[in-house]
Design brief:
Length: 163
Amino acid sequence: MNERQYAAKTWLNRNYALWCEIRQLKARREVLLADINGGVAPYRAKETQNDATKAQARTEDMRLAYSELCDLIDRRINEINREDSDTLKVIDKLPDATERAILIARHINYLPWARVTESLPWARASVFRYYRKALDNIYTLLYADIDKAYFEIYGGGTPHIKN
């Protein structure tokens, strides 16, 4: 992979960390919900009124935490949807449907390569060849004007790629 392809891939992957965070938050939400609904305290010989009050307060605290966690997840999902919408607008400009399909599977749906390659009717090597070509085309769509201006001013190089 050359540096231009890497720059395009980096741009496409900018939402991956957010997607991982959403998955972790959803897992935490499931644990919290299980604690609220099914969290059975161990058997106690005699439960006092004070113990019941503490348990009720703890449940209320967990419900509040659950509500706040759901709000956070919704905000993150909205954020990733906005970013994915911008990414899709760029991907949609690619002329080749195969390139679009590969980029959407990999960078919007976050499928592992094994799933991407098995979902397409081409050999793995062909899929990667299409992918590299798609990265070149994405790079051109994103950075061509910047590179041209930079070249005219400085005589070469790429401003967004660190050497």
